[in-house]
Amino acid sequence: MSFTASTESRMTSDDIHYLKTVLGKPLTLALAEITAKQPRDPIHYLGHWLFKYRYNQETDDSRKQDIQELVNERDRLERAKLVSFEFTFISVKCKQEKYPETYG
After folding, report:
1. Which domain covers residue 70, as residue numbers?
2. Backbone angles phi, psi at 41, to 5 degrees
3. Do 30 and 50 touch, CB atoms closer than 8 A?
4. Model-level pTM greater than 0.70?
5. Is residue 25 a part of any domain in this protein?
6. What is the per-residue pLDDT across 78-98, written as a single tens digit (0 to 9) for each?
7. 47-57 in b/e burial notation, b at 16+ Cβ within 10 A?
8. H or E element in which residue 16 lies
9. Does residue 92 sit within a domain?
10. Rg of the chain's alpha carbons, rounded to an integer?
């Protein structure tokens, strides 16, 4: 597939924005690495690089989700522990008021 002047003129600003948003960062990084390493088959290298980039993005997203779930669980447990402590404190306080001679 070759791009001609007519193909380029048919690209809208939305198309260009889409390409910049979705492909801008990975392609820039990939092309910089290809330029630095100058592999024998840059097209093959680019394909593998993009697959690896996508895999790393999915792994990072999954790791971030796991970390957020752990943080949420820790917060839930801390709140439950605080509620338990407050309940115990209130129970002891009530017993002290009910039986002052025992705790005097």
Report:
1. 5-79
2. -120, 85
3. yes
4. no
5. yes
6. 988 888 888 787 887 777 777
7. eebeeeeeeee
8. helix 13-37
9. no
10. 30
